[in-house]
Each structure stands twice: as C-alpha cells, then as structure tokens.
Amino acid sequence: MSDIRATSGIRRAAARIHDGTPPHRDRAVDALRALAILGVVLGHWLVTALVADGDTLRAASPLGTLPWLAPVSWVFQTLAVFFMVGGHVATRGLASARARGTAYRTWLRARLSRLFLPVSAVLAVWAVATVGLLLGGASFVTVHTVVKLALSPLWFLLVFAALTAATPLLARLSPLWPLAVVLHVDLVRFGLGGPSWLGWVNLAAGWLVPFTLGAAWSRGELERPRAGWTLFVGGAAATAVLVGFAGYPASMVGVPGAAVSNLNPPTLAAVTFGLAQCGLALLLRERLRRVMERPVAWAAVALVNLSAMTVFLWHQTAMMATTATGLLAGRLPGLHTRPDGLDWVAARLLWLPVFALVLGVCWAAFHGFEAAGGRRGRGRAPDRGRTRVVRVGGLPEPSALREARRV
C-alpha cells in the first residue's frame, strides 16, 4: 500500500511540474542537457580506474589495455552537445535580457554565479581533504591522482564561462571559423612537426565550434532536418577518415599513458566527432519533445537540470570516496584492481549503483550551493507564498519541485 501511495504521490508531483512549465519552453533543450551531463558522469565512472599499488593509488583506464572498448567513449563523451546547448541557451538568454532592458553585466553576473558558487564548496572540501591526506601520510602520487581527478571538471567550467562571457561577440560567428582554426592547428602540430603546446589553442577553438552551432540554432539556421543530417553524416565520415587514415586515436577521451589525447587538448577528430553528435542531437529534437510531454519523464529531466552543477562537480568525488572506503575491505574487483579484462568491466558495472548512491549523499550535502547560486543570480529571495516559476541555471523551477523532492 505504501508503494502505491508513493507512486501516486510522484505522479501528482510530476503532473504539477509538467503543468507549471511555460508552454513555450523547448523541453528538448533541457533533455539534451540532461543527457549530456549524465553521459559525462557515466563515461567517467566507466573508463576511470584507481588502481591500488601497495599504499598508492594510480589512475588507469580500461581503454589503455582494452582498446576495443573505444566505442564506449563515443557514447559517453557528450561535451559537444552540452556546449551546443550552452551556446543556444546563452544566445537566447542574452537576447531576452536585452529585450527586457537588462544590462549585459547583470545578465553575465547572474549566469556566472550559477556556475561558480557551487565550485567554492568543491574547492573548500578538497583543500581540507588534501591537507588531511598529506598529514595522514598518503603518498604524493596518491594525493596528486585524486586531487587531479576531483578538480578536473573545473577546466570545463572555465572554458564554458569564458565562452558565455563572449556571447555578444559569438552570437553571429559562423562555426566554420573556429573549425578552420582547429584544422590549421592540427596541421601544424601533427603534419609539420610544430610544438605540442600549440594544441592548447584548440581548448578555446575546439569548444567554440559546438557553442557557435548553438548560437546558429537560436537564429533558426538549424531547424531543417537537412542541417542535422549534414552535421551527423559529415562529422562521422570526417572522424572515420581521421581515425582510420590520419592516425588519430579511436578513443574520444584521454587515456593515461597515450601519446596523443583527442580531448586534452581537443583535436580535429574530437571536433568532427562532436559535429556528428550535435547533428544527431538536432535530429532527435522532435522525438525528445514528444517524450517530454510525459509528466514523469519531464519531471526527471527537470530535476537533473536543477542539479546539473552539483552532479557534475561531485561525481568524481563520489567515485573516489567509494574507492577509498572500499580499501578498508582490501583490493576489491572493479574498484582497486587493474582494468585489464572483461571481469573488471563486469565488476565495474556492479559498482555504478554504489557510485550513484554516494553521489546522492553529495547532492544532499552540497546542492544548497547550486540553489543559492540560482537565487543570487535572480537577485531576490524566492517567493514562498505562491506557485511560481523561477530560474536556476536557465531551467524553470516550479514550486512543485520541492514537493517532488519530499516524495
């Protein structure tokens, strides 16, 4: 009986969230953002290993010893979709702010507060954790490994924040310009023996490509299916040629010990692969819109979006907390062992629910920083006396979401 009552309560809360969302909202945008965030999280959990070597933890990846698993990275390396959605939302948001007479500085401060206030909690926790590990006798290799993994998501936020700040300059920029920069950087770097540091130019140019695609989307230039098919087929074909004949790695994420990473910094192969992903995302919009008309599906997507920053910033910490705690029971398969066989893959899949549970604990502890960032961005306290729609990270938050969290 209690299960039936809980299910009924969830459905009622979902219906209220569904009914409280503005009818003009493009729910496919939120669905794509949720899928992109969850793809990054699952990808990291699947391809990142912490191998216990005596008292030392070292980073490893099953992609290094099992290269045939590279297609896993094709599914879960979804940052291009996130940047495309970010460019779309930032361009539309700035245009809307200008229409309301809101100054660019006010708009930017609101967006950046939603990004960086949650970061303060991560930095504070890991500053304390780092000191504790060093004082507790942990090796420098272990400390360097875990801190690097925990803080690695921050590079993404810095690039995303810089592109968001440059939205007025990028709103009309064609994606072909940054794509040309990436092409020439790789030509000099790999074809002409140029310096490796030149690749870091692509850290901005590479993510500019999907960001400006999002701006083109907001201008209505990508509405026809032909645009999605062109990006999908063209990007996939270009990636296949680059991997098959130009020597680019098949993995679309970094692999410890590999000579070349497609992601750190982004290469031409990563960018063309991102174009294919963005094309597929555009092709799926109508189907996603239909699915998002289902109240439960939309409520789930809304909750993921409202927690996007918390999930993104803490998912690596959740994995490492599980790994560290598990050491108390010895070297556990899929958690501390070398990722060199199918047995490791099978064991790691069994650990994913545990990672999710620990991430839930992190969410409960630190989601308040994300919510505070949203309130600071709005510049006023929420009205608790009536049903409302407010903005957190560009997503409407009907007051029914509070009810959904209680159910």
Task: Note down, in words, how this protein is organized.
This protein is mainly alpha-helical and about 400 residues long. The chain has one domain. The protein is built from 18 helices and 4 strands.
Write the layout of secondary structure elements.
Blueprint: H1 2-20, H2 27-47, E1 49-53, E2 56-60, H3 62-65, H4 70-76, H5 79-99, H6 104-135, H7 140-151, H8 153-165, H9 167-170, H10 176-191, H11 202-218, H12 225-245, H13 268-283, H14 285-291, H15 295-306, H16 308-326, H17 342-378, E3 389-392, E4 395-398, H18 400-406
Query: Into which percentage range does the β-strand content fall?
Result: under 5%
Distance between the termini: 15 Å
What number is the mean pLDDT?
A: 88
The strands making up the biggest β-sheet line up spatially as 1-2
How many strands in all? 4
Unreliable spans are: 380-407
Main beta sheet: strand number and arrangement?
A: 2 strands, antiparallel
Q: What count of helical segments does DSSP give?
A: 18
Helix and strand content put the structural class at mainly alpha
Helix content: over 70%
